[in-house]
Amino acid sequence: MRRASIRRTCAALAAATSLALAVTACGGTTKNDVNKDSGAAASSAGKADPNAATKKGLTVGFLPKQVNNPYFTSADNGGKKALEELGEKYKEVGPSSATDTSGQVSYVNTLTQQQVNGMAVSAQDPGALCTALKQAMSNGIKVVTYDSDTKPECRNAFVSQASAEDLGRTEVQLLAEQIGYKGEIAILSAAQTATNQNTWIDYMKEELKDPKYKDVKLVKVAYGNDDAQASFQQTQGLLQQYPNLKGIISPTTVGIKAAAQYLSGSKYKGKVKLSGLGTPNDMRKYVKNGTVEAFELWDPAKLGELAARTTVALASGQITGKEGETFKAGDMGTYTIGKDGVINLGKPTVFDAKNIDQFNF
Ligand code: RAM
């Protein structure tokens, strides 16, 4: 069966049956395509034609971990702007909680049923979305993860904010310097299942094995679920449980902001150091009032833009997701696909009192 007729059959099924049934049935009718497409980066269908024309009028759905998180608002707006420039259509769907994994699965299925041409997904969990994403790919939809990955076989490419190893290691380096390489530290993370945070935390632990950190002790990893209130309470809990705590790394924009808010109103302000990943706009006042010395991040709008441009390049056949393929991402320049279909945005920026006023995101 040709893809166009598969799409028509799926549309008819979707109209006639419940979503779950239609999506399952569509997956079933395209079994060969599953084999051909679902190897993601490693064995995407067909050969890339770097000179293929960019298709117009494509619909790309953005599905962040969480819609009401300003970080994702910036990222997805970056995607929207790029899609509009390219003559494509943008939509955004997603859960309001960063731990609503089944909600994310339903949104993938909704986008599949709506027959979008591509989707950009920030995964709350590495495995939970796989069945739904493979169904999407088997229906000819290009799947890009951005910000937080799934297993590589469940998407065509992953647009990463920076090298995960660099991010994990530099967060430890930033905090260790601030505490004079001595004392107890804790991590305040996002959701317990989040692929991006868990990967960074693994590299933080690797970095801590270096003898220069022999007097630094990681006492706990706490989870604030990218929820402001839960992150605030977890910070309070860490300080109660570990009265000698010298520093906290929070690799989440929601977590670091809530931790800064707690510290700034407490006797620990300026004494317990805080670093990690935050937006300059969220953190400016805590840098100015002496709660925070330095933290880092990439430009979320650029991450969204690169995710959009990658999805369009895939849908236009310019790339398939294989290692070594290159493509032009508009004014952002040329990007090369790395191992396991990973594309790195670039190097993050470290913000401190000297440069923070130069950034507005
Ligand atoms: C939060 C989310 C996101 C992460 C940033 C740093 O907004 O957890 O996935 O990349 O923080």
UniProtKB/TrEMBL annotation:
- The highest taxon in the source lineage is Bacteria
| Keyword ATP-binding appears in the UniProt entry | no
Q: Which organism is it from?
A: Streptomyces carpinensis
Does the entry feature the keyword Signal, yes or no? yes
Keyword annotations for this protein, in alphabetical order, are:
Signal
The family database entries (PANTHER family) matched by this protein are listed as: ABC-TYPE SUGAR TRANSPORT SYSTEM PERIPLASMIC COMPONENT-LIKE PROTEIN, D-XYLOSE-BINDING PERIPLASMIC PROTEIN
The secretion signal range is 1-22
* Record protein name field: Rhamnose ABC transporter substrate-binding protein
- CDD domains reported for this sequence: PBP1_ABC_rhamnose
Q: Which residues form the Periplasmic binding protein domain?
A: 60-318
**Database matches in PROSITE patterns:** PROKAR_LIPOPROTEIN
The compartments listed are:
Cell envelope
